[in-house]
Amino acid sequence: MVIQTQGLSFSFGNQQVVKSLSLQVPAGSIYGFLGPNGAGKTTTIKMLLNLLQSGEGSIHIFGQELQANRISILSQIGSLIEQPAIYHHLTGKENLMNRALLLQVSETRVDEMLKLVQLTNAANKKAGQYSLGMKQRLGIALALLNDPKLLILDEPTNGLDPNGIIEIRELLMRLVGTGKTVFISSHLLAEIEKMATHVGIINNGELLFQGTITDLQNISQPLINIETDNTVDAANLLKRRNFTVTDIDNDHLYVPFTSKQQVGEINTLLVQNNITVFSISKQHKDLEKLFLDITKSN
Amino acid sequence: MKGFLLSFRSEFYKTRKTIGFWGSILLPLLISILAFAMFFIKSEELKSTPPMILWIKFSMISLAMMGTLLLPIYTIFIAYSVNNVEHKADTWKTIFSLPISRWSVYGAKFAYAVFLVFLCLALFALFTIGFGNLLGTLKPELKFNAYHMEVQLMEVYFKLFLSSLGILSIQFLLSLLWADFLKPMGLGFVATIAGVTVASKNWEYSYLFPYAHPMEAITTMIKRDNKVAGTVSELQINMFTKDVYVSFAIAIVVFIAGYFIVRKKSVK
Predict the structure, then answer these.
(1) For A171-212, how does the pLDDT look when each residue is reduced to its tens digit (9 = 90+)?
(2) Which string of b and e fits B73-96 if b means at least 16 CB within 10 Å?
(3) What is the pLDDT of residue A165?
(4) Is the CB of A89 inside 8 Å of chain B's CB atoms?
């Protein structure tokens, strides 16, 4: 295990924000740390980086106890916490050069990182003038500068446009291919599902679920969202043909997704029975529904 | 030690384009140019002044400004400026998650603030000597070349440097703990006014109050020797007065206390 915590707890005053967390992050995984805003994700991440004091429980990273081996552990971690921490009066390259100086990394590596996050052309522009997406990319370059074995990223796709999100996802998948471990937090299930190999779900400071992405998919089954001119007739027809209708409202009905073929069959069936289909699509459950399902299955 | 040196270099790299760093160079330069201009224009009136008095008058323009309000306020500003770089960029969380000990990060930042104050005061001494000699060359009627007080000037500015360390350590800690501008600066200004007031009233315990130290340093700088009273031909600087010891002691105590606070502090 790259990260292993036991009974990790933290309180701000009387409010307990992290409750007895036991994380298990295997080597070479992309571990998606999923939870709504305010669930305790950032607090947990700050504890993993030894930024918060006086918490309870134990943290082992690379098999070593964190407090006692702080510097040797931190030298193998790259991190991005909340919004990227960037000196606005320095250029993008100077921000990287300053970090390179502290980590004793060469200028060649700085240029490589600029290229990797596609900021070479904006390298000499003041970081204060960067767009949110560019700042986020610079933050990722800073995190990757010392070629860390473990990358801890807190909501790294915040503020990125769809292209940016795809780029980051591909970059992380490439990194894991080279033997690194990525711990990434997000409040978007769909985002995590696309890249994670392992998932931990946290709500109100408690770990609700932890396992592989396959384990999660068994719980979080996607649905087919169908919009027709007559929802009630469509639902009755599907039920008669042994389809499970999990939910129905004025305009839509929902059937558990099993395969693409099944979507086609449903479409054909409805059309052949003179029901007009306005739309039919695969839809992921939102976090709220997923939490309900997890709580039920527990 | 390596972490400390790397952090110190990084402090320079980060601040070399900020007003905090350039202020340390421009403040002595501008005030010295002002003093130079005043003497250059008024050279006719001053040409009968004896060389030693001429040097004293010339150097007192900067010294009087620094000794009263300017040095405490400049010190407060430097303490704010080196910490504000991190507050503004929200970078405490990154510098404390680097593989560098908290002690090195904190120690280097404090040392850098001390360095900036030292740089500013060293430049004051250098510019006063330089511009004084320049005046002697450009206006030979001003007899700057007939007397030398380089050593005394360096001693006075070194004394001012030591007397500012108490304020620096307190303000450094306040600016590190409080992200906003008003709290440390406001407290510092109020304390400075109080310091100048008690020092100018010659209150007997003013040597215990750090914000009174720069002014104390100026008022106690001349060594008063009864034997040669009346026949002052040599200026001797009284460097280690009790206010300087108190300033130094406060700096050490607050610096160490600050380290323990930083070590136990959570980075939000």
Answers:
(1) 888 888 888 999 999 988 878 888 899 999 998 899 988 999
(2) bbbbbbbbbbbbbbbebbbbbbbb
(3) 86
(4) yes
> What is residue B47's predicted lDDT score, i.e. its pLDDT?
82
Smallest Cα distance from B93 to chain A, Å? 7
- Record: contact B97-A85, CB cut-off 8 A: no
Q: Residues in chain B whose beta carbon is closer than 8 A to a beta carbon of chain A?
A: 6-7, 9-10, 13-14, 17-18, 85, 88-91, 93-101, 264-267
Contacts of A71 in chain B (CB under 8 A): 99-101
| B107/chain A closest Cα distance in angstroms | 15
- Planar angle of CA A223, A224, A228, nearest 5 degrees: 140
The answer to whether A136 and A159 are in contact (CB under 8 A) is yes
Is the CB of residue A42 less than 8 Å from the CB of residue A205?
Answer: no
Nearest to A51 among B7, B101, B266 (CB): B266
pLDDT at residue A246 above 70? yes
Q: Which of A266, A260, A261 is nearest to A226 (CA)?
A: A266
Residue A39: partners with Cβ closer than 8 Å, 6 or more residues away: A187, A202, A203, A204, A205
pLDDT at B233: 52
CA B14 – CA B268 distance, rounded (Å) = 22
How many angstroms separate the first and last alpha carbons of chain B?
A: 27
Q: B110: domain range?
A: 2-265
Two structure tokens written together for A33: 């740390």
Chunked into runs of 10 residues, chain B (268 residues) has average pLDDT values of: 93 92 94 92 85 89 85 94 93 93 94 96 95 89 84 91 94 92 91 88 82 82 58 67 90 94 85
Q: How close B19 gets to chain A, by Cα (Å)?
A: 11
Decide if A71 and B100 are in contact by the 8 Å CB cutoff. yes
* B24 sits in which H/E element: helix B19-41
Q: What pLDDT band is residue A20 in, cutting at 50, 70 and 90?
A: very high
> Rounded to the nearest 5°, which phi and psi values hold at B161?
-60, -50
N-term to C-term CA, chain A: 25
Of A133 and A279, more confident: A279
SS3 B219: helix
Helical segments of chain A, H only: 41-48, 70-74, 92-103, 107-116, 132-144, 162-177, 189-195, 213-219, 231-240, 260-272, 287-297
Q: Tokens for B211, please give them.
A: 């914000």
Cα–Cα distance, B86 to B80 (Å, whole number): 10
pTM, full prediction:
0.86
Pick the residue with more confidence: B228 or A70? A70
Count structural domains, chain B.
Answer: 1
Residue A102 contacts residue B97 (beta carbons within 8 Å): no
Kindly give, in sequence order, each residue whose CB lies less than 8 Å from that of residue A288, ignoring residues fewer than 6 positions away. Answer: none
